[in-house]
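Key result, reporting period 2: structure in, sequence out.
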């Protein structure tokens, strides 16, 4: 028998026997919590199949000593504990993350609306830019208007499990409609500002608008 035929036969047997297709959709367990792979009729990508990306590898943040610092153009600069954040009203939504390099996945994200964080800290009228700083030295920024108009959330759960360390525990920004480099992970500080800011990748030429489908790079003088 020709090798190619043998290969085809074995492939068919393997795929049938191992149930490859359903394997693909098998929910994983993270810290004793099993993820959910559908929400409101939408199928979610299993966490094990979601790619991820970081400039300095996984950051391990301690829940007890963690603080989210919110400062800049605010009336009351705040240092939220993890518990204070998770006690605020929670929102869930299914959103795709599209990395500028071409891969993407669909997940359920649960967390707190940026608007609620701004309300807690008393955002000032002149705040137009919001800068996110991460534990690995990463940073990025988004317009205040974009965050408010799109009900953007800071997620602490992914597919119903607590955000795993490699995925940004305790918080990842769900910057829907924006390329992955706007989705800051391991956020430790949020600064409100009145001037434009270029984060880690933006400073290296990536488009500061970062609209999915729009140009990846920006021409700068
Ligand atoms: N702190 C931090 N956040 C980060 C990055 C990073 O290197 N450090 N990489 C960004 C990029 S380029 C992408 S595509 C997404 C990947 O997020 P994921 O782990 O949810 O897939 O994280 C973004 N957030
Ligand atoms: Mo990315």
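The corresponding designed sequence is given below.
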């Amino acid at each position: 028998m020709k090798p190619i035929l043998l290969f085809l036969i074995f492939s068919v047997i393997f795929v049938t026997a191992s149930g490859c297709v359903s394997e693909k959709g098998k929910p994983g367990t993270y810290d004793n919590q099993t993820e959910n792979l559908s929400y409101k009729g939408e199928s979610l990508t299993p966490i094990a199949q979601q790619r991820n990306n970081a400039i300095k590898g996984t950051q391990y943040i301690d829940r007890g000593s963690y603080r989210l610092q919110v400062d800049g153009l605010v009336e009351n600069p705040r240092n939220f504990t993890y518990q204070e954040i998770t006690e605020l009203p929670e929102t869930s939504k299914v959103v795709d993350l599209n990395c500028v390099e071409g891969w993407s996945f669909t997940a359920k994200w649960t967390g707190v609306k940026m608007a609620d964080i701004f309300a807690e800290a008393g955002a000032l009228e002149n705040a137009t830019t919001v800068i996110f700083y991460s534990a690995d030295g990463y940073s990025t920024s988004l317009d205040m208007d974009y965050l408010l108009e799109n009900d953007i959330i800071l997620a602490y759960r992914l597919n119903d499990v607590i955000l795993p360390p490699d995925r940004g525990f305790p918080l990842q920004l769900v910057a829907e409609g924006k390329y992955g480099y706007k989705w800051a992970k391991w956020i430790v500080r949020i600064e409100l500002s009145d001037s434009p800011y270029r984060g880690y990748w933006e400073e290296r030429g990536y488009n500061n608008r970062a609209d999915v489908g729009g140009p990846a790079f920006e021409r700068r003088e």
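Residues 3-18 form the longest helix (16 residues). The domain at 36-204 is CATH 3.90.420.10 (Sulfite Oxidase; Chain A, domain 2). This case is discussed further under Risks and Mitigation.
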